[in-house]
Amino acid sequence: MEPERCCESGCIPCERDRDGAAPLDLSNYIGGAFVGHSGDAANEHDWLNVVEPATGYRFARAPLSGAGDVDAAVAAARAAQPAWGALSFGQRADWLDKIADALEAKYDEIAVLESRDTGKPISLARAVDAHRSVANFRFFAGQIRETHGGANERFEMDDATNIVVAKPVGVAALITPWNLPLYLLSWKVAPAIGMGNTVVCKPSELTPMTANLLMETIHEVGLPAGVVNLVHGDGAGAGGPLTAHPDVDLVSFTGGTATGAKVAASAAPQFKKLSLELGGKNASIIFDDCDLDATVAGVTRAAFLNQGQVCLCGSRILVQSSIHDEFLAKFVDTVEAMKIGNPSDESTQLGALISPQHLDKVSGYVALAKEEGGEVLTGGYPCLPKEFEHGNWLAPTVIAGLPHDSRCSTEEIFGPVVTVHKFETEDEAVAIANGTRYGLAGSVWVGDLDAGRRVAEKIETGMVWVNTWLHRDLRVPFGGVKDSGVGREGGRWSLGFFSEPMNICLKHD
Ligand code: TXE
After folding, report:
1. Of 149, 35, 146, 144, whose CA–CA distance to 99 is shortest?
2. How many domains does the chain have?
3. Domain that holds residue 414
């Protein structure tokens, strides 16, 4: 099927203000105050436009901050760190709970803002983004309180006792992407401050709204000034100076692999603690003894949740040859029945892609798939009401017949596009699954759980689900191998990353 834009004018999405309404101007949050940035507020070029992906309307502007703003935020964080780090784990856990309570009161506001800012369906923004953002603060409050920051280990010798204490690292830079804005920011802020660090957040310039809401919430609950700071801006102007800043001790980054390499290069000479959660090209491996209907439902969700813009999405579907045709027929039917459109409609299952540039990238891969010999079984530009003609839309797209080592089958597309491949044996499935530079996640769909476990262990990734996908327990390690990143966060791995373990050896009399 040939993708075609159904917009009458055939124009590309563009930025406009709805009914001439003035956009909301956001501020940085530094040292406990909302402050203007160092740019010229009267100059349009010193702002970043925040645009609804579904309609192309601009609705806010974020400051295009620079190195001076980063310096101010890092200085505020540094000044606040000693007093904050001196609180007990229990006291800091109480603060995390206060933030969770205040965020929970804004549950619907989070969902509406996130849906508007990212183009994702409101039902998803509520169930996933709003829910997890609150849960992240609550979970880390509980874990830090229960484990005293994980620092309760003792090692006895005949003549001495070793105790291990977890000390704060210092000032943490937290850099987040646009696909799960508050979900991922809260995943970093909660353990970072819970362990006694102070932080400077740099959210994606494409989706700054809920980061702003988090700062408002933190301000309302009265968190001590400087513990959490936020600088808006792009990667070159704000992200780069932040990761390279000599007074930043730790960098936690989630984003694209190419950007991750730049972040690593700037952090390495100063030996900063570093965690990189990068891209993925995850396989969903389907064996012929699976429960086919449950598998079709699970694999569809894994492929297209958040328009396929989740690093964990199963964008390569490997099917055992004996059920390949039956699976494919059911899968395509299921995909074509998905409801795409108005993100604020409760029944919508698929929303818009994040930006016109990203839509171009994703549709470029669909064009490439045809050059590489693939057949597009379903997809294209959806026909939507006129209100959405300037949005970034692409119907869920299924491509078959591609070589498993083609570019479309091995490179991260990060959109509603999946490739389907046939395999005969377990070894072949594992070889195809491992045939990319990425190694973040994967799923196995199988009747025999022992076989599922065996296959899972052979896959070179940080996480594999068997007969499920994105079934998250916040206590488990989260992260990838190969080009999908370095380090683990989640549960005690987050507490470990956001602290320095120190050994104190007490010699007995
Ligand atoms: O992300 P970027 P982009 C993948 C996906 C996507 C690609 C690029 O394939 O197509 O990455 O997306 C900040 N120093 N993922 O360009 O650029 C930036 O401002 C410090 C997967 O939107 O990686 C933003 O806050 N920071 C991913 C954050 O990095 C810099 C989710 C992420 O932006 C910087 C998103 C620099 N030099 C995209 N340059 C996932 N793992 O889920 C940019 N930034």
Report:
1. 144
2. 2
3. 282-473
